[in-house]
Amino acid sequence: MPALNPYLSFRTEARQAMEFYQSVLGGDLDISVFGDFPDMVQDPSQRELVMHAQLNTPDGLVLMASDTPDGMTYEKPQGISVSLSGNTQERTQEVWDRLSEGATITMPLDTPPWGGTFGMLVDRFGIAWMLHGDPE
The PhnB-like domain covers which part of the protein (predicted)? Predict the structure, then answer.
């Protein structure tokens, strides 16, 4: 079955971000570094950068990320948000509380006109999130 999964790009913070997201969402995190593939990066100081990370949550969500070593073009993600919906309001509040540590709140978690709970933030790694808890 096809899947559409967020793939986040970082300069050098993919490991820290993905470990943070694992602490928020739970699940299994698998990380491969550029040093695992010696021909991928020339600078030995960048061998521990993340070539690919994948977080599989107990809810069936998949979040992926990588770092961008020197010599590769990096553009900070913009114009896109990771949207997390379909949870209970209680679970949405739990995720919100954890994701909002060090974040910039762009819309506080509150009751939107369509019901449930909804809020937006930019986390401490610069990733925009939208969270929606289903109406009870």
Answer: 5-130
- The residue segments making up the domain with residue 37 are 7-67
Distances (CA, A) of 124 to 37, 68, 72: 29, 18, 23
User: How many residues belong to the chain?
Assistant: 136
- Helix axis angle for 14-25 and 89-99, nearest 10°, is 150
Structure tokens belonging to residue 39: 């021909």
Answer yes or no: do 49 and 93 share one domain: no
Does residue 18 contact residue 63 with C-beta atoms inside 8 Å? yes
pTM, rounded to two decimals: 0.92
pLDDT in tens, 1-16: 788 899 999 999 999 9
Single out the residue in 26, 41, 67 at which a domain terminates: 67
